[in-house]
Amino acid sequence: MNGLCADIGMLLWPRLLPVLRRGRSRSSRGGGTRLAVLGGVGAAFWCGLFTVAWRVLRYFKGIEDIGDILAFKLLSMILIVCFALLLFSSILTCLSTLYLSRDLLLVHSTPVASHRVFLARWIDSTADSGWMVILFTLPVFLAYGIVFAAGPGYYAATLLSLIVLAASASALSALGVMAGVMLVPAGRMRSIVVILGVLLFVTLYLAIRLSRPEQLVNPEVFDTVMAYVASLQAPVSPLLPSTWAYDSIQSALAGFTAKSLFHTALGASFAVTLICVLTLAADALYFKGFSRTQTASVRLIRRDGISERLFRFLPGPARSFTVKEIKTFLRDQTQWSQLFLIAALVVIYIYNFAALPLERSPIQTAYLQNLLSFLNMALALFVLAAVTARFAYPAVSLEREAFWLVKTSPVSLRTFLRIKFFIYYLPLLVLTEVLIVATNLLLQVTPLMMALSTVTVFFVVPGIVAMGIGLGAAFPDFKAENPAQAVTSFGGLVFMIACALYIGVVVLLEAGPVYWIFMADLHGSALSPAVRLWAASSFAAAFALSILAVVLPLRFGEKRLSRMTI
Amino acid sequence: MIELTQLTKSYNGFTAVDRLTLRVGQGEIFGFIGPNGAGKTTTIKMLGGVLAPTSGSVAVGGIDLQAEPERAKRKIGFIPDRPYLYEKLTGLEFLRFTADIYGVPVSEFQPKATATLEMFGLSDWSNELIESYSHGMKQRLIMASAVLHDPEVLIVDEPMVGLDPLAIIMVKKLFRKLAADGVTIFMSTHTLTVAEDICDRIGIITRGRLIADGTAADLRREANATEADLEQVFLNLTTNGPVAES
User: Fold this and answer.
1) Does residue A542 form part of some domain?
2) ipTM score of the complex?
């Protein structure tokens, strides 16, 4: 047992050291500010979650008869979602940590038994997949404790139950992954899991959205709500680890310590049993699966010369980077899932406008439709910012360690960034214009609003894409195992804040003049010279800002990238 | 063809390359040797335009690399020591990518690519994704892409790392042929026999400073080891040389 613990400790130590030494290495100096900003945003999000949860639970508590039922149902749903999230994120981290990490070749060459290597990596993976879910559900459980005036036993039981839940989910995922890798190579399996996960999410989301949950607040369907409340009391499956966690937390909330301990022990015994089974299975299967991962992957689709033919008209460097970017994107199956997500996003976005009950609004319909159209412009631009964050922001980081090819090529960094900009600008412009035009058609807005929103979007999209490319170049991570996650870094945060500010300022600049122009248009009256001047200067300022939003981030990115040592 | 003038690179107070002045003529193969951390790769990176010098200059074919980087890089073929490539492209697609960047005419690409892939023994793998290549195959592909646009200067960092003996022989022959055709080759290496076999001139760098420069015979004389092999000369110069003593 001592040997086992020593081996596991030894294998975990190099993974732990970078976390402990953060900020002390030469490369991470100056990271204190980043850490403070990220910590601040995390803390604000944590506090926000707590506030929302506290207010909702206090509201529930105030409802006679069904208040507690609703609160406990919510708790049960939170735990099921937590368990599902833990399962899914564990599958991905298990695949990476156990089969795909770059340091595995070195680790497997050490004189340590493969099941010990497995256990060390599994602990690493469990911590990796679980910490964020646990950290960001804690405010909700804290709110439960405060609203239900629970004792210290509740907090201990909750923390223990969440850790047990994370361990069970991770062990189940590891078992599944180990079996799966024997059938499909790990690299391919990750793609399959991501695609299936996204498809499942999209299907569920579409199903929930298309069932029009907003009708639950419509008095005409109140009978349905009562039937729903009755169904709340139906028990969930007693075989789910999330149910044991729920039973434990709910008992602790109600002050039944012994009952809570029993359910925690039930969950813990399941987790320990799973870990024993996992260790036995790892001894037999882990190394075989890892060996299979070392074999070369086979291309799924072989015939593709379309990109070269399609972009033959472009000059050499632009053609080479465009073709490379498209091929790399299409051949990375994990990227496909993002396309499904975007398709679902577009459908839901447009459907939301089709389902708006404008006719029941007490506000004048024409005014409301055009007000919504204006707000929709801002909303569509925020959607664009999110999509840009996922695709354009990591574009430079996605060059990975092959970035030396760009640095040694006779193409300047300015040209390189401009090529990247245009590769993403065109599809993102089309996406945003489709969103705007389709929703405006559904809202039946005036030609003035249609023109205003399409033109505004036309001028704002380049700014957002340029900020994505420029800030992505200013804060690149060429060594990340998954550069697509670069957006969760400090630079990604700067990008999102910059986008929010930019969109906010443009909307504010346009809001006043647009209101007066719209009202004059609606009443058929002429605009006063003062309003004309105001409108002209506002639109000119928005236009100037859009030009700066293109030029400045690209220059900033170029400057930072040229100073970077690779 | 290559001219380094007072080339210096410092990082956080540490001088990796210290006032390096050197000239390599057309068609010459210059070998750059030195112990680990001596400044070889830093020099190579500055020559390739990957790294900006702290001071001093690099001129390639009379073109200042800092002043006109794109023009200068058009003349260079760069081969790094680690073969990082776009893993989701095939070998042939990667060659097309570099050909487009360096402006190889479309009509010339196919015959050139076929010949180059054949020369580097990659014909059978040309339509496979690079992610399925071995380390040595990736290294060969980088070499193929570096010579595809007929560079006037070849900058090579550790050319033989990861190559099998057959490929090493082929690369040595290729370098000699390229030099005979007027291509200037600047290569760093740890393999002293390679340096002795193919280099016209060898420079020894230690602690960022060039401590010796000349033919293998010149270096032997300088190290007072006329009968010794290059390994002994290297040891004499790097452990007792003027910089080591200071």
Assistant:
1) yes
2) 0.86
